[in-house]
Amino acid sequence: GGGHLEETWDAHAGIESNHGQHAAEVDQPIAALLTDLEQRGLLDDTLVVWGGEFGR
């Protein structure tokens, strides 16, 4: 056998630090998506919906 690593998005403990970490992980990809849509002339005709686990 070997070690087992389990990584989850459960952020109930340490909510403030977890939120900052996970928000930073999606910042660049979302910015890249919006930039790409704009460069292709598609941003004005595209609805981008972003939500979280609890809809907050």
Brief synopsis:
The protein is mainly alpha-helical and 56 residues long. 45% of the residues lie in helices and 0% in strands. It starts with 14 loop residues before the first helix and ends in a 17-residue tail after the last helix.
Fill in the keyword field for this structure.
56 residues; mainly alpha; 45% helix
Task: Describe the protein.
- With 56 residues, the chain is an all-alpha fold.
- It has one domain.
- It has 1 helix and no strands.
- It is elongated, with a radius of gyration of 16 Å.
- The model has no long low-confidence stretch (mean pLDDT 82).
What is the fold's blueprint, element by element?
Layout: H1 15-39
Strand percent estimate: under 5%
The total of beta strands comes to: 0
**Sequence of secondary-structure elements:** H
Helicity range of the residues? Answer: 40-55%
Number of helices: 1
Overall mean pLDDT score?
82
* N-end to C-end Cα span: 41 Å
Number of domains: 1
What structural class is derived from the secondary structure elements?
Answer: mainly alpha
